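INTERNAL AUDIT FORM
Audit reference: QA-55
Scope: verify that the stored structure record matches its stored sequence.
Auditor: D.O.
Record contents follow.
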Amino acid sequence: MGSEVVNVPPDRERTDGGSVQVVRKSAQILDCFSATTPRLRASDIVQATGMPTSTVARILRTLVGENLLQRQGQEYSIGLRVTAWSAAAKAGSDLLAAAGPHITALRDRSRESCGIYVRQGTNRVSVLGAESTHSIIYRGYIGQILPLQASAAGKVLMAYDEQAHQAVLEEGLPGYTEHSITDPQVLEKLLDQVREQGWAFTEEEREPGLNSLAAPIFGAGETLVAAVAIGAPSFRLTRAVAEELSADVTATAAAISRALLAGEPAQ
């Protein structure tokens, strides 16, 4: 059989090529931002890339709309979506290699959805997960960005990182449900309790019907790295059940911490 030649319509070819060019130009603009130049004006980007002002303005609007950049006045900086990717990448190799087998094992024992969260500003980002084997489950996804305030993982990340706690207080404590903690003094008492017992439990603070349990993962120098968390429907993950699972969750977090310090994947 002879080879078949597929003719691509000129307008389709131009569209596909144009899409590639937009991606390349967007990447070129994002590459302008660095640790030494975290904030740039549109004119700075025009000068750095050599692109026409109209092209830069159009792409900047798109990047802001997609939360890849954020705008404050006349200046642009990297958006939360990119910083979430960055957090996942930084957390990636060592943490995920160390945590993967333990998170799967914790899911198998608890039969609930388990995962790892790292802090990004006043949010937490999911970097690893294993779904529950039940029919009715908590279903998150890798890269998901959620507030620190209304979760067990978030409370762990605040309890062992004062900067995270202060950042949340400065941003405010919105109420997501009737059970959300909106009083700074109440939050402080809860964080003291987390530090005292080594784990956190929340009941329907972010979403009705969803409870969570979490414990801290530490790296070198007892530096907080992440939080191990279980998320489940409130009718299964009751306070009594959370207290029963707390030893397993803290032991899992400690095992991951040891694996990180050893610099080896968990066995």
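Auditor finding: record pair retrieved intact. The chain has two domains: 10-78, 82-262.
Action required: none
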